[in-house]
Amino acid sequence: MSIPQKVKAVEAVFHALEGELRQFQNQTPLRCLTGCGECCKKPDIEATVLEMIPLAYHWYQTGTAEAWLDRLETSDADPLCKLFNPFGTLQGKGNCEHYAYRGLVCRLFGFAANLNKYGKPLLATCKLLKEEKAEAYQQTQAWIDAGGRVPMIRDYYMKLYAIDPTLSEQRHPINTAIRLALEKVLLYYYYQTPKAS
Ligand code: SF4
Fold this sequence. Notes:
Blueprint: H1 3-27, E1 46-47, H2 53-61, H3 65-74, E2 84-85, E3 95-96, H4 104-108, E4 112-115, E5 121-124, H5 127-132, H6 134-145, H7 153-163, H8 165-168, E6 172-173, H9 174-192
Antiparallel strand pairs: 1-6, 2-3, 4-5
Organism: Catalinimonas alkaloidigena
Pfam families: CxxCxxCC
InterPro entries: Puta_zinc/iron-chelating_dom
């Protein structure tokens, strides 16, 4: 599968998730805190290379891939996601510089579920929501317990695996996943471009 084909396939998975999330949010009261970017500040966010391929492709298409590669190669020691802009919102709490191209992990977090050891879907959401929107969190989990349909994290990673097992079997620190995705895209186009003899 070529890079543009992989981009389309991954974007189709993101699109399907958006639809499922919309339905889920229409039926449940849980929402993020206004202007909050706390989940992006976690130093241990992990992603697969494949989920960052649309972002890398976007940078390639807009001529910013090399600059981003430099930035990612020179600042690997800082675990904070390089796309996070701490001054990005009116509330001053920060946001994602490339929200439309964020990874699957970013799309799922807060409003999707994992199975617990008894096979029961458990909402994977943040401490802030559990504490500051405790009632909405509990109502949402009760709705899931009663059979409400929640996006399942495992299912979405399986969809990525079906597109490209090699690029989706391992999770890396998010900046590493972005850098590896960028290297894949640049390498692909390096071999696609006819060289001057
Ligand atoms: S890619 Fe964007 S949404 Fe995901 S962790 Fe980084 S800043 Fe946050």
